[in-house]
Structures are given as C-alpha cells and as structure tokens.
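User: I'm preparing a small set of examples for a lab meeting where we compare how different chains pack in three dimensions. I only have the primary sequence for this one, and I'd like the structure in token form so I can line it up with the others. Please keep the answer compact; I'll paste it straight into my notes.
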Amino acid sequence: MKKIVTIFLTLVAFTTSTRAQSLKKIDNLLNQKDYSKAITELLKIESKSQEVLEKLGDAYYNTKDMPEAKKWYGILVKKYEKNVSIDYLYKYNQTLRSTGDYTTADIYFQKATGKKVNTNEYFKNLKNNSITSSKIEKITTNSTTSDFAPSFYGDSLVFASSRGNGKIYKWNNQPYLDLYVGAIEQNGDIQSAKAFSKSLNSDIHESNATFSKDGKTVYFTRNNNDNGKRIKDENKITQLKVYKATLTNGIWGNITELPFNGDNYSIAHPSLSADGKQLYFASDMPGTLGSTDIYVVSINADGTYGKPSNLGTIINTNKAEQFPFISDDNTLYFASEGLLGLGGLDIFKSKSTNGTFETPQNLGDVINSSADDFSFIINGTKTLGYFASNREGSLVDNIYRFSNTITKSFISGTIVDSSTNNPVSGASINLTDSSFDVSKEITVGNDGKYSFQIKPGVTYTIVVNKEQYKENSSTFLAPEAGLKKEIALVKDVPKKPVFDPIYFDFDQSKITNSYKTSLDASVATIKANPDMNVRIEAYTDAIGTSQYNLKLSKERALAVKKYLTSKGIPAEKIEYVAHGNSMAVINCGNTDECKKASAKERKCVIELFTN
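Assistant: Understood. Below is the structure token output for the 611-residue chain.
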C-alpha cells in the first residue's frame, strides 16, 4: 500500500512539474506573440484552470478570433466569475459585442466599468441624429492577407499589406507588412496595387504612412531595428518606431527615426496635420492611461520636435486608443477599445477648437461593426474616405471605401412681432461665425422668412434689427440636422437720447481724454435716474471689412462700458449694441480725405431707457 501511495504521489508531482514546464513554454510563446503555437499548446492541456482559460482567451483575442475568444472567456467567467479580474470582464464584454449580443455585453460592461449603458438605444439615437448616408464597399485590390492603414498620397492610396512573399510573422502566420500604392479610380475604388518603395520596404514590418501636402516627406511605422536586424527588448519583443524619409529625384531616402522613439515602448500610426506643424501618433510610452494612447508632438520650423503630449482623458481611456487621423478641418478620427462601441475597435471623431478636443462621438453602425474597425481617413471635402475592418467574419483586415452624400444644413425661420405673432417685413438679419470669418446679411420680405446655410459644429451669432423694435441677438452651435428658429421682435419704447455722442480716433477703441469729462457728466445723469437702464450703441466708418468693423465697434462699446462701471454704474444695468459699419453713410477708399469725412461715424451713443 505504501508503495502505491508513493507511486501516486510521484505521478502527481510529475504531472504538476510537467504542467508548470508547459505553462512556462506557453508564457514564452505569448511573450513573443507567437499566438498560433501558444493556442496549440494550451488546447493540449485537458484540465483547464483559470490561468489556462485566461491565456487561451487572450491568445484568440489577440489574433482577433473573437468567436473563439468569446467561447473561452465565457467558460472562464461562468466557472471563476468571483475571482475574475475587471480586465477579463471587460474583454468578455468586447467579445459579446463582436457577436452582436449587446444586451449581455451591457451587463458585463457595467460590471467592469460601473457604468450602466444601453447600447441598442445609444446607436438608435446616433442613427436618428445622422444626416449623412454612406455607401460602404471593399476596394478591389484587397488580398487574402491583411490590408489596412490607408493614407492619401496625391491621387493614389498608400496602405499596408501582408501580400508579399517574405518571411512569416509568428503572431498571425502572415508575411511581414510592406507599403503598397494604388491609383484612386473615379468611383474611389483601388483596382490594383504595387510595392510603394524599394527603399522604404524591408524584411521587417512597415505600415501606417502619412505624407506632407507637397508629397516630399513621409512619416511611417517600422519595427525597431539596426540595419534591418530587429532589436528586441528584455521580453524579446520588437517594438515599433516612427521614421521619417524625404523624396529626392523620385527616390525615398534620408530615413531617420524620430528622437522620442524608445527601445522599450512602441510609437506607431503617425498622422500629419494639414499645415505640417503637428504629428499625431499612438504609443504605450510611460505615462499612458492604459494600453496605448493618442499623443501629439509639435514639428518646429527648423525640423526639430517638441515634447510629445498625451491628449488626456477626453480622448484616451484605460484601454487601447490607436490609429489617429487628423483631417484638414482639424477633426481627430481614431479607433478606441475603451469608449462605448459595437465591439472590438470602433472609430470615433472629435473636433478640435482652439486646441481643445470635444467629447468623442461614435461614427455609428454604418462605419462601425461588431468587429475591429480602424485606420479611418477622409478627404478634404468629406466626400470620400477609407478605413479597415475584419468584419464579415474575416480573420484578416480588409480596406473599405465609403462615399458621403453631404446634406446641406440651414438655419431658417420667420421674424415675427412678439405681440401679434405676425411676420415683420424689412427686418435686417446678420449672421456671423465665432471667428468673424463669415458674415452674411439679408433683409426679409413681407413674409418675414429668412434662411442661411450653416456648417455643423460651428458657433454662430444671429442679430436682427428693425426700426421701432428692440434688437434681438442670440448665439448657437450649429447642429448637423439644421435648425428651425422663429425670432420674435419686441416693440421698442420710444426713447430720447439725453447725451451727446463721443467719438473715437481712426481704427482705435481707446477713449480720449477730451471725452472723459463728457462721460463723467453722463455718469451723474445716470446715477440720478436709478430706475432706468443704459444702452451703449457703437459705430464705425466704412473703411475695412464688415467683419473687422463689427469687432472694432464691439471693442469701442466695451471700452465705454468699462469706463461707466469704473465710475460706479452697475454692470448689470448696462447693455451694448455693436453696429459696425452697418449704418455708415460715407463709403469711400482708404485715403486721408476719406478718414476725415467719415470721422463722425466713429461714435458711441449712450441712451437711458426703461424695460
């Protein structure tokens, strides 16, 4: 009996030792991203512990075989849910999304993040608010291997592909990536492609190219290497770096790596801004919020670089954010695994205003799917774009093209009398954007109707004036679906100016000393009428553009307001109207005689009125 027990214990020890050796071998394979061999070894293990299930799910997850990943994560969660980490609950949520089971996915999304969501309702609202229709089609030149990372290069499309005959990459059992190029047909299709550049393509990975507007500079992703030999970090992983090359006599050369690359982290997926002054990229460098984040770095006039800056929590999450693309209108498109989506990577957009990005918006279920959707680009007119996806049950990535039907957006409505609700004819309406780049003015007819074309996402101010009515002004952010806006004008109580106007020097908003005495007298009168309010109306001459004069008259009105408040007049009792040159009567050129003749138009009028 003792002998039998000894043999049994020896067998248990041998089995445990064998399993430990097997797991060590599997860990080495996973660290080297040789997922195919790791899966083979993991499937040989009959008794699937929590550790084995986690590794098996991860191996399939990293090779984008979501049905198999869902299967093994599902067994893991069912068998060990009380011990499963938040990270695995989130991954299970992602695999559920990849098969369209959003109801169950929402449950595990909440368990992993603490946030309650309703994915079906979320995407229903996105669709209801969308006015852009897109036709999605595969490009003809897709291969049987991975094709992704499109970029515009003149009238051609450059992209990454594994279609070559080089050595095999263990991660996915496909050849190493190279850059290819194909002509963009009239319908946006790419019929055929060829290797982009012998000097850029090598025996290791090249992908994600981005070009300067003149086509003479390229930034692209390549494996960390020394004269073509891959350099591995302490975990035997070859990281990614971004390189720069320039075109001379038709040949790409002067290949240099960027100075903020590192041997122990990756920098990849570069995207160059339209003016060539900023480079966006993805990285897992120290300081990321999790996995990979989107960064931006300034490119100086002398060709040097600033310090890379993380775009922060507005864009990045504790999951993967990758494949940034900055469009001509400064909209950032990127792929995210951490923001609410349909599964895998979803594509989002975020508009940049004065250097600040807005809350990202999912592009919806036309562009996005339950698979990985990423490397999105769009042309300057927003009529043609491309992205990559492994949708339709494919285990490889394909490039898709889309064409947008751009629906024009308008603000329209009727000007009415607030008392009678009847249309007000002859009212003048001025529409100005926040940067004063656009200024449009019309006078309504007998029906009081007006209409302006607007750009979604732009802030506008609309000002309505009509004799015997108070001015009506409002500011709004233009929605994509346009805006219907009835504007009511209130009859103005007859008022009589009680102050002489003050005048400004040419192109100035500073109050001269000669008028401060007059303003002090006005202050005394205003204080003597505490039940009345103050209106400042500022004007300019006709020299210069309407946009500039509108801004100048505003500055003059604010200067007077500041003076009155400094003398004790409460700011809440003061309103102002900036007329610009809308009431100028002398319209002449930029001559000294003209400046003298139009001096009386450069005025501010102060009035007292009752509400």
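A couple of notes for your slides: The radius of gyration is 33 Å. The chain has four domains: 2-117, 130-405, 409-489, 502-609.

User: Perfect, thanks.
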